[in-house]
Amino acid sequence: MMVIINDTISDQKFSQVFLYKSVDKLSIKNRVMRHLRRYLAFFLVLCGIMFAAGSGSALAQPAAPASSPSDSNSEFPETVVERLVQDALENNLTLKQERISLEQGRAALAQTKGQYLPSLDLSARYTRSRGGRTIGFPVGDAVNPAYRALDQMSPTRQFPRLQNREISLLREKEQRTELQLRQPLYRPEIRRGAEARSHEVESQEASVEAQRRQLAHDVKTAYYRYRKAQARVEILEATRTLASENRRTNQQLLEAAKVTKDAVHRAEAEVLSVRQKLTQSRTSFRQARRRLNVLRDRPSDAKIPEPKTGTETLIDKRVRALEQRVGQTLFGSEVLDGAGGGSQPMRTGAAAGAAGGSLESIRALVDERPALKRLDAAAKAADAQHRAAQTAFLPTVSLAVDAGIQGRTYGFSGDKPYARASVVLEWNLFDGLTERRRVERRRLETKRLRARREHVARQLTQEVRTALENVRVAHRSLRTAQARVRAAQESFRLTRRRHEAGRANQATLIDARTTFTEARMNLNVTRYDLLIHLAELEHAAGLVRANPKK
């Protein structure tokens, strides 16, 4: 509002000045527009300053909790898994081949549908000929005797004499240029063929989706095996440190004549045993990393992102997410000890039965698998091909139109232009029962695919049930493995204190340490086995998320 008032005042001042100086109205208008532009520029600069101040204050605020250094749970291991899956979906060569096959199927469908449209061809031919067969035309022998008789009857008038002619069958010069239009009027095999192609594309789309989900499952499984091998290496490295420290301690005790030499040799053998296991574990770790990078289409030694939280948290999140997607409980109210789930016991009875899932609920999950959708589409395509083969017994009707010019030279005069239109009827009356055999073959193919679909559905149902059982067994094993680690750790701690006090021998300490190491490795294996079984359950139930960037 202030801008408008100032503008009005400025207009009055400018008008008085310009009237005083006898300036024309056009100059006054130009001055006014100039001042308006200045006011507008000032207003835009002021808005920019206010926006910059607001942005600066926003930047000065503390960062979001996700990027705060104090938030140690900002990147869960499943985020790493999903990133690896996304990477594989974008770069895997096998999946790229499947997508190319899908594009080929779509191109074939467009080609089949294109048969509905007319075809227009241009044909041009220019010919120069020499020699060849000729036809003799005795025009002189036929006409000249009559002319001689007439000459005798009228001596004052003489008729000309004609020569016999030789007519060549080939023209010395000849051209023919025409446009050929072909339009199918009734061809039922086109519609059936397009329908079959459409179902084939659906089958290929389901095949691509199945390949994507299988790839996502393989990446998750490979990542969990990689992490399992990595954790095994870390455990053995820590065990090697303990074994080396035990060897050093026994060497000092031997020098002090407090133990015999066999204790040193026993400690040395234990160090060598751990070193051997560590070498094997490192080899398994490199192989697991190579397998994961192959799925991602990356160099074999490419770095794998590291998670920032524990495995129990990942298991808890995966189980909770899976229960939410399935719509029923897998284990009960508690997932893991010490994983944020409290200390309530597992559900039994009706709750456990509900967690198992009925046959109807399992089949509902199985019916959404891309493998079954692919077989359904393939069966529909085979049925459409069967009906397309049956159309071979029907007639076909098409329209043919030809128009052009022909003659010795090019032009549109005289009889050179020509045109013709035809309705063509084609009907195969007998072909030695070839088409009948083809129809029977298509019918049997449809029957085979439907039987295959039922067989695969039963296999997938059994696969879901087996995956559910494996998950529950792995969950119970994990609870036992956690308790085993706690007991072995406490036993090793007490035995080590007794050994330091001289109340436990070397063999007892080594046995306690070996038991503790085996318990830790067993817990590590059980953890990642549970994650692998969860991934298998997701894949079997068709719950794998695989959404590549288009």
3D architecture notes:
There is one protein chain. The chain has a four-stranded antiparallel β-sheet with strand order 1-4-5-6, with no helix packed on it. Strands 2-3 form a two-stranded antiparallel sheet. It has 13 helices and six strands. The chain is 66% helix and 10% strand. The radius of gyration is 46 Å and the shape is elongated. By secondary structure, the protein is α+β, with helices and mostly antiparallel strands.
TL;DR of this structure?
The protein has 550 residues and is of the alpha+beta class. Helix content is 66%, strand content 10%. Helix 10 packs across helix 12.
Quickly list its features.
single chain; alpha+beta; four-stranded antiparallel β-sheet; two-stranded antiparallel ribbon; 66% helix; 550 residues
Spatial shape = elongated
Low-confidence stretches: 1-26, 49-77, 333-357
Mean pLDDT value: 77
Structure classification: alpha+beta
Main β-sheet: number of strands, strand sense, barrel status?
A: 4 strands, antiparallel
Percent range for helical residues? 55-70%
Show the helix and strand layout.
Layout: H1 2-20, H2 25-60, H3 77-91, H4 93-113, E1 119-128, E2 134-137, H5 139-153, E3 165-168, E4 173-186, H6 188-255, H7 261-296, H8 311-326, H9 350-356, H10 359-366, H11 370-390, E5 396-407, E6 417-426, H12 434-500, H13 506-540
Antiparallel strand pairs: 1-4, 2-3, 4-5, 5-6
